[in-house]
Amino acid sequence: MKRLAAAATTALMVAFASGDGHAAGGTLAPAQKWSFGGVFGTFDRGDLQRGLQVYRSVCSNCHSLKLIAFRNLEGLGLSPEEVQAIAGEYEVTDGPDDEGEMYSRAARAADRFPSPFANDQAARASNGGALPPDLSLITKGRAGESVFKGTKFREYGADYVYALMTGYEEEPPEGVTLMDGMHYNHYFPGHQIAMAPPLFDEAVEYTDGTEATLQQHAHDIATFLAWAADPNAEERKRIGIKAILFVTILSVMLYAVKKKIWSDLH
């Protein structure tokens, strides 16, 4: 578990620190098929719940998710009881109590995911001086100018997250020399990343029986992080579609009224 956590920390930490998904020296990540892509897209609940498993088993050892409350997980298709059960596995700091002291308690649905470290200094001390970034908006942070390159809209940097997780190669291409302690990743800017791959086949045993391949892990965590960056995306799309339909119908009605009025005048 410690080896897995360390790999996850450094791989995500270094990868998400730079600019967009096509930074200098990197290779543009190939577009993937996402259920949530496009105007009418919605999140696949199975992908989301498996992505939550990957986050909790791997990423959460070092990376926070500060903008997501446990109650938001109902958007993944979980019941309030399931959400509370997950929250109860975490401890949060609360207080002060009647004596002015802070104390720890089991998390409730209204609480946000706690950080794995007490503070940034503790996080840096545990990760060789580097600060693991919060993952709440990480896919939006990766969706820079390069999202408009290619055959489709590359929503929220999910393509890059998937590519990074699956882009490791055991040996670098001929003519490429890796610095000590670095690993070759085809899609990482500069192609050299500090830690071993955080995900691999059967890294997480899915509770729904889905085959736990590297590609499945990468797909699910990318989907989950895309949702975390915009939990209200589906509702926003629904409202937008309704607004467009309303304006369209209103425009037709107004045009018909205008034609009627002017025909009477002439």
Structure explained in plain terms:
The protein has 266 residues and is mostly helical. It folds into 3 domains: 2-68 and 113-231, Cytochrome Bc1 Complex, Chain D, domain 2 (Orthogonal Bundle); 79-112, no CATH class; 232-266. The protein contains 8 helices and 5 strands, in the order αααββαααβββαα. The protein has helices at residues 2-15, 45-57, 80-87, 120-126, 138-142, 158-166, 214-229, 233-265; strands at 91-94, 103-106, 168-169, 183-185, 192-193. Strands 3-4-5 form a 3-stranded antiparallel beta sheet. Strands 1-2 form a two-stranded antiparallel ribbon. α2 crosses α7 and α6 (158-166) runs antiparallel to α7. The chain is extended, with a radius of gyration of 23 Å. Residues 1-25 and 145-154 have low confidence and may be disordered.
How do the strands and helices of this protein lay out in sequence?
Elements (H helix, E strand, L loop, with lengths): L1 H14 L29 H13 L22 H8 L3 E4 L8 E4 L13 H7 L11 H5 L15 H9 L1 E2 L13 E3 L6 E2 L20 H16 L3 H33 L1
Antiparallel strand pairs: 1-2, 3-4, 4-5
Helix pairs in contact: 2-7, 6-7
The CATH class assignment of the largest domain is Mainly Alpha
Structural class: mainly alpha
CATH superfamily of the largest domain: Cytochrome c-like domain
- SS elements, strand count: 5
Number of helices: 8
CATH topology of the largest domain: Cytochrome Bc1 Complex, Chain D, domain 2
Strand composition percent: 5-15%
